[in-house]
Amino acid sequence: KTSSPVSWHKAKSLKFRYSPCCCSMGSQCSAACRSYGIDEGHVDSFVQTVQGYAGLERKPQEVIPDFGDHLQVKKEAFEQGRLSIVILGASGDLAKKKTYPSLMDLFLNGFLPPHVVIMGFARSKQSSDEFRAAMKPWLLKVKAESEVDRFLSRCEYFQGTYGAADDFRMLDQALKELEAKADFVTTNRLFYFAIPPDAFLASARSIKAGAMANGFNRLIVEKPFGHDLASATQLASDLEAVFSEDYIFRIDHYLGKEAVQNLLMFRFGNHFLEPLFNNKHVASVRVTFKEPFGTEGRGGYFTNYGIIRDIIQNHLMQVISVVCMEPPSTASGLRGGNAIRDAKVRVVSAMQKINIKDVVVGQYVANDGKPGYLEDDSIKDTSKAEMVPTYCAMVMYIDNDRWRGVPIMVKAGKALDERKAEIRIQFKDAECMSIFGDADLPRNELVIRLQPEEVVYMKAMMKTPGLSSAPMMGELDLTYKNRFSGAYLPDAYTRLILEALRGGQEDFVRSDEIMASWKLFDPLLKELESEAGAKKPLPYKYGSRGPQEGDDLFKRAGFKFDAEYKWKPGNCHSS
């Protein structure tokens, strides 16, 4: 859309609407791609993609994927050297359902170099061909066979033991043979720990002893990050004795969700919004996580954790810290990652001790043909399982000038009435409400939906259309799939793996963040689980909202439910 194709390609942040003039720019596009560092393996697919848009009739305001992102990637270290990505635990569920599909997405969209080596590592005895055959059905769920085969051609498998340094030395030799096919001097490696926490330390030591590359070496570590404060402290100390914080990327996929990624810009980049985020205007902050299914065969695992450890202490606390933190000193450049995480640590550290009276726990029971939690066949210790919450509602408070007195409400549960994760900022009653007589106007709410679809909407009062002057609640609605149709919105895991390759740590969890969160929740969990103060979960029916006591808790804390407000039929939201 510019007179020069080179300047068009240089505009790395440009979101463009397609202009037919580009359909004749094939050779110029190729030259521009090469001049800006895109290798031969990607030029043709890049140009074909651009030319492909020439024949599309696009709707007004429709956004095309940002090719500038690709140009930025090509200039980074992992594109300018050999690259291996090693998935530890490659035969496990996480690797099949999340890690490999995310890597395939990056590869097929041109965010991984064509020479990348993707090596699965696990204890299972199988060949690379057998591994690819076993992985293929999982990948076919999201991509066509030709694309899956192209990705699998970059995938290999190595059998080994996590704690055996000799196995990792042999892995290193296998990687070097594959990496040597790319004509570079520097070799970079990313190790993804899709393994249980008890294998973290042994794996880290083995990598350090036998599988380090001459470029960067980075470790993506999955949760859980400990079971309590003591175990989290020990795990962090042990890992950091092998690798410093700069090497470790602790992944919490909620930080990779598009709506959470947008929070920083949405909150601090809008003049009208940031001044409202404080106790002068906000009545409550509410973060909700709901799943419409139970543990379904994972009850044995879940019995060791419960909903507070599994969801609230990590995922939801990460969301709360971004919503409520003070502006970081910077959000860009080399200092941005630590500045953002410093701000998150400060707000979590400012939270008051959680009062057990402000906590409601529940456990789902059988309903309408669906089994209760205790009927999960994988649960062996039913006496222990009886005390495990599958639902929790709690109210917390932040002791700082911005949020003092504002209830921070958290609700998480399994086997509830819908799938939803959202942030809901409820504002105080309108100061001029009295001019409308006896009308009881509902409160404004800013709602940021994380799943199942990314949505941002503001509930705002207006008059009923037409001749009536009666008040009604409407919405200022930003639904991502409508407003940003055609934009590349990757899965959270996809985004975070790319960020780890880039070396950006702002979307990963630092050890002091984990400690601050555990210092908040450890006393509560000990109180809930102690023999003297044990709080038996309240029963709630599978498919319900959860215990009524949870809603009652939020009402007492000041949340106003608007029972009359409903979305129009066909809208994807619920009240």
Question: Would you mind describing this structure in some detail?
Answer:
It is a single chain. The protein is of the alpha/beta class. It contains 19 helices and 15 strands. It has helices at residues 5-10, 26-35, 40-52, 67-74, 93-108, 128-139, 145-152, 165-179, 200-210, 229-242, 258-268, 299-302, 306-324, 336-349, 382-385, 480-483, 492-502, 511-529, 548-557; strands spanning 82-88, 117-122, 155-159, 187-193, 217-222, 248-251, 282-290, 359-365, 391-396, 408-413, 420-427, 445-451, 455-463, 471-479, 538-541. The strands form two sheets. The protein has a nine-stranded mixed sheet, with helices on both faces. The chain has a six-stranded parallel sheet with strand order 3-2-1-4-5-6, sandwiched between helices. Strand 12 and strand 13 (455-463) form a beta hairpin. Helix 13 (306-324) crosses helix 14 (336-349). The longest helix has 19 residues, at 306-324. The protein is globular, with a radius of gyration of 25 Å. The two termini are 43 Å apart. Residues 1-28, 30-68 and 569-575 have low confidence and may be disordered.
